[in-house]
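Is this the right way to post structure tokens for a design question? Let me know if I should format differently. Anyway, here goes:
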């Protein structure tokens, strides 16, 4: 969900997975369809998915660096749940925003630059492990697991979360 130009979708397909990419951007879907004909791409918003076109029986729903751009991030979680098999997993990544990282941004005077409101299409939600866990639990997720990437511990760039639904 949120496949952009389809490059990651194509990587998964090349590893033997049957993949469907969903993207709201018409230009992203056009590029994806032109370059990666081995995958299925659907132009749609997470807020209004054509579930009949998706055949909602996926083993996994993957969303990479999307949830932080959504006004209503619960909709991504709800959409994933509708698309997954009962044993399926939601895997998502988002920039990490924990206490120590936010403190480091404040102490170095980079808070305003990092949380700028002047970037159209930029991040509008900022998640820590605690806040993302709360969001997922509120939507019926369990077996929530986190991994982290980039920079130093507790100053991570991104967090990867995997969970399943009750």
């Amino acid at each position: 969900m949120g496949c952009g130009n389809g490059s990651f979708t194509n990587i998964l397909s090349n590893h033997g997975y049957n993949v469907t990419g969903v993207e709201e951007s018409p230009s992203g879907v056009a590029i994806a369809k032109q370059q990666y004909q081995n995958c299925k791409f659907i132009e749609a918003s997470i807020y209004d998915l054509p579930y009949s076109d998706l055949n909602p029986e996926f083993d996994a729903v993957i969303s990479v660096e999307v949830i932080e751009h959504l006004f209503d991030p619960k909709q991504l979680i709800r959409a994933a749940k509708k698309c997954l098999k009962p044993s399926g997993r939601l895997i998502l990544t988002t920039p990490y925003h924990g206490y120590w990282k936010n403190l480091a941004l404040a102490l170095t005077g980079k808070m305003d630059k990092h949380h700028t409101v002047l970037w159209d299409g930029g991040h509008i939600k900022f998640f820590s492990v605690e806040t993302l866990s709360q969001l997922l639990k509120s939507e019926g997720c369990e077996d929530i697991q986190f991994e982290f990437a980039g920079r130093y511990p507790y100053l991570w760039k991104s967090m990867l979360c995997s969970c399943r639904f009750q």
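Format looks fine. Someone answered above. Worth noting: The CA atoms of residues 18 and 36 lie 13 Å apart. The chain is about 35% helix and 25% strand.
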